[in-house]
Amino acid sequence: MIEDTETIDEFLARYTEDVEEAVRKAAAQEVMPRWQRLAEHEVDQKAGPHDLVTDADRKAELYLTAALPALLPGSVVVGEEAVHANPATYEAIRGGAPVWIVDPVDGTRQFVRGETGFCTLVALAHRGVVRASWTYAPARDRFATAVRGRGAHLDGRRLHAGPPEPGRELRVATSHPDYTTDEQKRALLALRTPGVAPRPCGSAGLEYLAVARGECDAVAFSWEAAWDHAAGLLLVEEAGGTHLTITGEPFRITGGNELPFTAARDAATARRVVGLLSGEAA
For the whole model, what pTM was predicted? Predict the structure, then answer.
């Protein structure tokens, strides 16, 4: 448990593994027992048929909402399901207290279908800067972590995204059309050009991990919800990648970004994707 005199850096030096344990326990107790065993009454719609929530989402978030501030007194939690119930809680991301940004089941549609493409995302941020992140894909038994200035790791091995192979099509995961405005659809359609191979994204957290591993070259997303992006953006940064909005500025988890935005394996790829999204020559 952090003491009043400790800094966040000191906390992360001592308790990163404790956070990982909390994430693993949340998944083991609340997510995996329901995977491929969901009853109809355990699945609900939020904004529509493509926006689902399950008992696993709710209960895993409650677990983490209790466990994480216990590790870091004075911190607060901004979780996807709590914000859905009370949107005002999102403002904590812009406040002065350390904030845990939680997506208990990222890729809920895949989870409901009984597929493996879902994960639990946790990020620790302070004053708009993501300091550390944890990405856990329990059905695949993969755990990725990132600490600002200390690199990104997958199952204990350092991640290096590296530049794409010269001459190969860019592999870009994009926002699903169901979650885009007409203007955003037009911007994303610009990626359908020779030399680029766009596809709809799955779990955002796992797409970011794919970029950090060099398996995907970039993502292009059109929404700002911090629980979907905070963990993965740091993972990509610490693996050597970068992120840009269509105005050429880094994505801000506090909001107010010009959309769409990209996160990519390297700066040159990010600039190329942004150039296409903004209608400029790539």
Answer: 0.93
